[in-house]
Structures are given as C-alpha cells and as structure tokens.
Amino acid sequence: MRITRITYGEAPIASRIANAVIDFSRMTVSIVAVHTDLVVDGEPVVGYGFHSNGRYAQSGILSTRVLPRVREAAPDRLLDPDTGVIDPVAVRAVAMENEKPGGHGDRAVAVGTLDMAMWDLAAKAEGVPLYRLLHRRFGTGPEPDPSVWVYAAGGYYHPEKPIEGLRDEIRGYLDLGYRDVKIKIGGAPLAEDLRRIEAVLDLLPPDSRLAVDANGRFDLPTALEYGRALGAYDLMWYEEPVDPLDYLGHAVLAEEYPGALATGENLFSAADVRNLRRHAGLRPGTDILQMDPSLSYGVAEYDSMLRDLAQAGWSPRQVCPHGGNQINLAMAAAFGFGGCESYPEVFQPFGGFADTTPVRDGRVPLPDAPGLGVELKPALHTLLREHLH
Ligand SMILES: O=C([O-])CC(=O)C(=O)O
Ligand SMILES: [Mg+2]
C-alpha cells in the first residue's frame, strides 16, 4: 500500500452564532484527504480528516511543514512492517520531525487532522470500523462499547434568537432523541444567563440534564460569583469557567463549587494535560475532561494523556471530548469514555455522526462501515470530495 497523493484545503463553517468569547462569522476548518493505490471494490481507498470547530484552518503549517515531511518520507517508514498497512503512529512521528517540544497550539490541530485521515485509511485498508481498530490497538476492556452517550451542544447567543428561540432549539434536540443538552453562558450579564438557564431547565424532562459553558471568559472572582449562582441548579457541569491554562484558578474553583467542572478542549498536548492533572485540583470522581483528539495531535497523543491520567486515578469514563467529531465517537467506544459531545444543529456538515445511526435516548450506536464513517454522512462526504479531489 502506498500513499499516492495528499490533498488539503479549508472549508468554511461560518455562522452567526457566538459564545462568550468569539463569534463564528469567519470560522474555518482544515480538511485533508490521503489518496492511495489500494483499490477496494473497484475504488481507490481514500482517508479523510477534518478538525473540530474553534480553531481556524492551518493551511500554512500543513503545506510548509507537516505534509512535505510525509510526502518526502521513504514509503516504508509510513507502514506497519507486519501488515503492510499505513501505521498512523509512524506517520505522526514523521510529521513531527524537526519540531521542538512545547508551542503546541495550531501545530497540534494540523497534525490531529492528518492523524484522523490516516486512521480512517488504516481502518478502511483493514476493512473494519475505526472503533474496532482503535480498540484492538489501544482498548483495555474485552470489547468496545456498542453505543456512546452523547449530549446536544448548542444554546449559542444569536442576534435573532432570544429566549423563545433558545427553547425551540432545545426542544428540537429532545425531539431528535437527545436527553441532555448544553448551552452557553458568559456572553450576557449573570441575571440574563440565569433566565436562559431557567428557561431551558423549565422544559427539560426530569431525567434530562443541562450543562453550561463559559468558554474561558471569566476572571476568578466572576467565575466564583457564577459558581455560587449556578450551585442552585444541579447542573450536569460548569465548563471552562476560567482561562484553560489558569490551573490555580481551577483549583480554587474546585474547592468552592460543589458540582462538576469540565475543561480540556483548549489543551493541545499530553504535557498540557499532565499540568492540568498536577496543578488544577480537579476531582477524579467528579470533574469532566474534554480534550479533543483532532485539536491535539490525534489518537496516540490522546492515549498518552489517558495513561498519565490513569496513574492519578482518573477513569476514561470521566472523559467526554469536545468537538462533535466522528473520530471522538469512535474513540469513545474504543477507549470507554463516558461519552462525547454532539452538535446536531451547529457547525454542519462537520458536527454530528452518521446519518444511519440516529440518537436514541441520548445514545448513538457505532456504525458498521469500514473506516471512520464519513461516507455515512453524505453532505460531509460530498463536501470533502468536491474540495479534495
Ligand atoms: O463554542 C465553542 O467554541 C465550542 C465549545 O466550547 C464546545 O462545544 O464546548
Ligand atoms: Mg466548550
């Protein structure tokens, strides 16, 4: 098996929504296709990668550093010597040659996107769904989970969607089969945010839960003030209250806020996560970790994060990746995460899972098709093929 061509591009996911810190009016994602000489059922096998929302596309890093290294490497260095199939862990090592430690940021996203395409390719070459390949390589339990708990993330600030629009949006998620939901806070004064929270809680059935996400907006005094107000509501979690790298701030909040805190979507490496684990005072039985593989160097880096966390008593069930990305669902089943995020409405066609596996009672089954499952989301597959031939 040989890589014949790697194509990349940028796709828009612009929309009029805003969280507490950014609007998404110019948001883009990197997209990558890895073409090969392997033919299955008369079609050359192609692996696809794309990253989650929140980081802009990294065309410069991909075109000048990451992709040239892979294109110029001796082809056998990219293969598993036992099977002759692409080895994404070997590809990632090649992609990272001559990169110093630290300074993760956008480089981690570029590599995470390529990593996803390589895993899609490896699973297609072996003719297995990606979650099964990942379980075989990294899983600990005897079998991968057949379905994964997901929650509907939305509830953004929208200029034309005051509280009744928010309620309609949340009703729509419940109708789609979601049980639990997340909305934004921190983009309005506390009193208005509390009205938004109460308006949603008011329509949720008794077994549904609500999480809130401040996107790292608050300084510590504001985060504590919100925490005191939120304590009244038995929320599913209080997400990114302060800057993602303010570990001491998290430690102070974790002493004060009785419910679950959630963070990690803006950490980009195992080293960042180790610092979080060491210094942020988070509680292994309570708090939720949301690192996103497509934003943080991909699957092998995530495995390192999980191994570090396990030594400190963190179960993978406390992990629930950000991003609504198909690879997160595959990883959640393979590694035994507590769940993963889904975007049923926003960031389309990138957010959400295969069209063939609708959500039932808050869970999504894993698809049976070989690879990641991009082909089971025709709007996404068409977009990728049109941009990346
Ligand atoms: O608004 C965003 O950037 C996305 C986000 O935080 C989330 O899905 O948790
Ligand atoms: Mg978030």
TrEMBL record:
User: Which positions does the site annotation Transition state stabilizer cover?
Assistant: 53, 182, 341
Q: What Pfam families does UniProt report for this protein, alphabetically?
A: MR_MLE_C (PF13378)
Cofactor binding remark: Binds 1 Mg(2+) ion per subunit.
Co-factor(s): Mg(2+)
What residues form the catalytic site here? 184, 322
Q: Where is the Mandelate racemase/muconate lactonizing enzyme C-terminal domain?
A: 163-260
- Which residues are recorded as binding Mg(2+)? 213, 239, 265
Q: Where is the signal peptide?
A: none
Which BP terms in the Gene Ontology apply to this protein? carbohydrate catabolic process
Q: Where does substrate bind?
A: 19, 53, 100, 156, 182, 239, 265, 322
- Its domain of life reads Bacteria
Q: Name one GO molecular function term.
A: magnesium ion binding
Q: Where is this site: Increases basicity of active site His?
A: 292
Metal-binding recorded as keyword: yes
- Look up the coiled coil feature and give its residue ranges: none
Which keywords are on file for this protein? Magnesium, Metal-binding
Any idea what this protein is called? L-alanine-DL-glutamate epimerase-like enolase superfamily enzyme
Q: Which organism is it from?
A: Streptomonospora nanhaiensis
